[in-house]
């Protein structure tokens, strides 16, 4: 605080000046004042700092309100020596960097961002312009890099493959990444080569399908060298839900972060439950609860493009009157957390 360092009750007789770059000034005598600028070391014996705007100068005397301890920052008031400031596992964001710098650290030991590769397969895919008869415009390839980045990982350009098992095996073997997403080959049809490719590479299949709709054909495998492979369905909304659940969970674990809790919100109109699987439904969030936006088929992205979140609807025999909210942005903090 710019003003006057004083000792005792006023008025105070003005002595010298303390600048921010000044060495430690001499001790203040009782009834003395030194002018001082923000960031300067207060003289020993200072009991208060009177702000410039509150001070009145009469000759060499300073008058003004002085509350004991006011506008003085004491050594150790934020933390004591050897006190833990933050536990291991905290994400390093700008405030954490500021805290580290304030206590004199130049380097932090961190878990680096995982390297992630994305592979999109399909003979039928068109990557530019409109689709034609028997062809489908690729909607998953444009989504994946942004999803991966928002989840806190590093990504490379998307690799596009035809429905070819040998090409997929070669791509998985040579990918320079700790985590590989493969879209379009995770089901069990004649053109779905992910599981045979994983078997050929000696991979361990950890998750073989998840009881959710859409997105149930997803998979998680570990290659012999420890790299992870996540299989995403070929339908765009199903691929997105698989990424937001299994994919984000894998990335967060690789970053050393826990899965966040999800807020529960009411569903005024109710949402139909699937008898055996969890449903993921695009919804808008309102002051009264969540409202479905429709267009939630596994091949559709129109609904999620207009939605605020996905309602996680547990299986059951009746309609759900409440649901957890899964953010569509993998880098966002869930509501209420």
From TrEMBL:
Q: In which pathway does it act?
A: Cofactor biosynthesis; molybdopterin biosynthesis
Q: Does Phosphoprotein appear among the keywords? A: no
What EC numbers are recorded for this enzyme? 2.10.1.1
Provide GO CC annotations from the record. Answer: cytosol
| Names of required cofactors | Mg(2+)
The UniProt keyword set, sorted, is: Magnesium, Metal-binding, Molybdenum, Molybdenum cofactor biosynthesis, Transferase
Origin species: Kribbella steppae
Biological role: Catalyzes the insertion of molybdate into adenylated molybdopterin with the concomitant release of AMP.
Descriptive protein name = Molybdopterin molybdenumtransferase
